[in-house]
Inverse folding.
């Protein structure tokens, strides 16, 4: 799962967007934390304009997105590593079905952890925004839907 855009595009896709966007569009390897924060600030600044957020709301959204992005970074790294493990298991002379199953379980746990953290970020962002602002954010996410 590409946590750059998908994680960033949700306040959904939008706040989620904050975290994902921060990871850099389909970048390989880890992004520098300062660069990640800079991308989040840029993204949230544009989101704040779109939804008419106050400076206080913008600051809270940045904090939520940065926290989520930093929490999700190691999970993304784990996902990438597990993918490599999967390829190695599949291309081995003999496929170890037990190892494949163990890896599948780990991948599901990782995906669940990512989902829980994203849900937390989205609900935290929802607490910051008014219903009208959330509606505007959802409309923006719908416009971006074709991108990932």
């Amino acid at each position: 799962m590409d946590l750059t855009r998908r994680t960033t595009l949700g306040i959904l896709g939008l706040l989620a967007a904050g975290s994902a966007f921060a990871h850099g569009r389909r970048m390989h390897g880890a992004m520098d934390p300062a660069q990640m924060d800079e991308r989040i600030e840029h993204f949230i600044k544009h989101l704040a304009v779109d939804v008419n957020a106050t400076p206080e709301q913008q600051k809270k959204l940045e904090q939520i997105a940065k926290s989520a992005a930093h929490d999700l970074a190691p999970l993304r790294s784990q996902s990438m590593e597990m993918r490599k493990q999967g390829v190695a298991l599949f291309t081995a002379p003999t496929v170890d079905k037990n190892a494949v199953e163990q890896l599948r379980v780990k991948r599901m746990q990782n995906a669940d952890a990512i989902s829980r953290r994203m849900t937390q970020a989205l609900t935290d962002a929802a607490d910051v925004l008014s219903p009208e602002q959330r509606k505007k954010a959802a409309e923006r996410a719908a416009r971006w839907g074709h991108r990932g």
